[in-house]
Specification:
- The protein has 16 helices and 12 strands.
- By secondary structure, the protein is of the alpha/beta class.
- The protein has a single domain, classed as Alpha-Beta Barrel (TIM Barrel), CATH 3.20.20.
- An 8-stranded parallel β-sheet has the order 4-11-10-9-8-7-6-5. The protein has a two-stranded antiparallel sheet with strand order 1-12.
- Strand 6, helix 7 and strand 7 form a beta-alpha-beta unit.
- Helix 1 runs antiparallel to helix 16.
- The longest helix is centred in the C-terminal third of the chain and has 33 residues.
- The two termini are 37 Å apart.
Amino acid sequence: MSIKLADCYNTHQFRKLAKARLPAPIFHYIDGAADDEVTYRRNTEAYESCDLVPNVLAGVKDIDLSTTVMGIPMDLPLFLSPTALQRLFHHDGERAVGRAAEGFNTLFGISSLATVGIEEIGRTIRSPKIFQLYYHKDKALTWGMIDRCREANFDALALTVDTIVGGNRERDLWTGFTSPPKLTPASLLSFATHPAWTWHYLMGEPFELPNLKDHIPEGSDVSISVSDYFSTMLDQTMDWDAAAEVRERWGKAFCLKGVMSVADAKKAVEIGADAIMVSNHGGRQLDGSRSPFDQLAEIVDAVGDQIDVICDGGIQRGTHVLKALSMGAKACSGGRWYLYALAGAGEAGVKRALTNLQAELIRDMKLMGATSIADLGRHNLRFR
């Protein structure tokens, strides 16, 4: 039975829609993770070990979901984490996601591996913007992206620190996924049976990585797997001094994406970071690592009064967001929940995904007896 956008009330249904619309190699790039995908599954399952304890008779007619992260005000405590290659999933790519974010005044991110350029996003998208920086061996590329983001008035920069080498994404190996995609005998049938996607890819705007194309051939027409890209293009000498140098050059709101330990969270404070994204890259890097939600309490307890802590990964429901906020996160973020929606229906899909989660948050806040994020705390959580 086919699924339509109007049938999509949750992430699981958006995933079905994306699977129906995308050739297999593209779908499995979004959907897959590292090794046995244990951490990928655990990222969401971690929330199920924690129960919410609601209060009643609290007068909850008006709900305020607003928060401030890195000094940036947002109307939702959930934002769209930077993700790569979005025009592979839908021909509008980052343009569609950014326009959807505008209607909710929440933070929207693009990757160094974005398929729409820094300048266009800065010029056309009004919502708060964060850029995800990969620290390349080519320092002219690294410093150039930072300078371009500043000139384009991006609000924040997130240095990704958990991709020092590419994770073992076996689904990509099985399907032969590369960027740009290669037509192979194994994938030909899948591309042929998804003619709408294939027509847009072959006949529409040429696929490229505009933030990279002037520096390395892998930004244009050289097919490469994402894991190979990380392993060969990124600088494995990156350390805390390098992170501090990036922060100093950027000079605005600065975040480290991929922090999972208390020791690293404390070092992030020491180098002057404004926020950390507690994240395991959606389970796509080190399989067997902890989930962000499971690590959240000890990190918040150690540094939550000195730095904004963002819980990134595994989010599929409004109640997941409320649990992370109750644990002490300033906000949550994620990628797959909106990428499935983008792949399934473009801008309309992302808007519907945001609308669904906003409605869940408002309803669940009322059922919790909370009118603002400040009302949430560990008093309303119990672990099994």
